[in-house]
Amino acid sequence: MLNQKDLNKIKKEIREFFSKMTFEVQVEVLPQQEELLPADLKTEEPQILIGERGETLMEIQRLLRLILRKKISREEPFYIDLDVNDYKKKKIAYLKEMVKEAAEEVVLTKKEKTLPPMRAFERRIIHLELADNPNVKTESIGQEPERQVVVKPVSSV
After folding, report:
1. Beta strands 79-84; 36-42: pairing state
2. Cα separations (Å) of 111 from 19, 62, 126?
3. For residue 54, which phi and psi values (nearest 5 degrees)?
4. What is the pLDDT of residues 121-146, one digit of tens each?
5. What fold does the segment set 4-85 form as a domain?
6. HSE-up of residue 70 (Cα within 13 Å, Cβ side)
7. CA 148 to chain centre
8. Domain range 90-153, CATH architecture
9. If we measure between CA atoms, which residue out of 134, 146, 54 comes closest to residue 95?
């Protein structure tokens, strides 16, 4: 676990990173969840930091992870989970709602449904959301960046 000194340093480094990019951001570092350290940003220009389909946000997160690992020497790894103006929270809620509707459709029609291509973290949300549903199963197919989730009906024997 990161101590308070490390958390303060991380917050400072994140602020400096965005300041050098000439972005004004408010940074809130949330309590660590195992190896994951959530950091929420608030800004007036979220679309620039998020990018198309969240691509820019993922790259910024990757860069920050590399920078922070060099500045904060820890034996245990930690991963920064960056969110801008609750983009990820809203995206997760949308994915969960979409996949519930897809599962209902699959159960009713008894036909599999292929979802649009998604990044790994989005596919993971889909798989986890339907993991406890006994009427459907999920499978990832294809190659990156066109990898998709297929929701299939479970045949009753």
Report:
1. parallel
2. 51, 38, 18
3. 80, 10
4. 999 999 999 999 999 999 999 999 89
5. GMP Synthetase; Chain A, domain 3 (3.30.300)
6. 6
7. 16
8. 2-Layer Sandwich (3.30)
9. 54
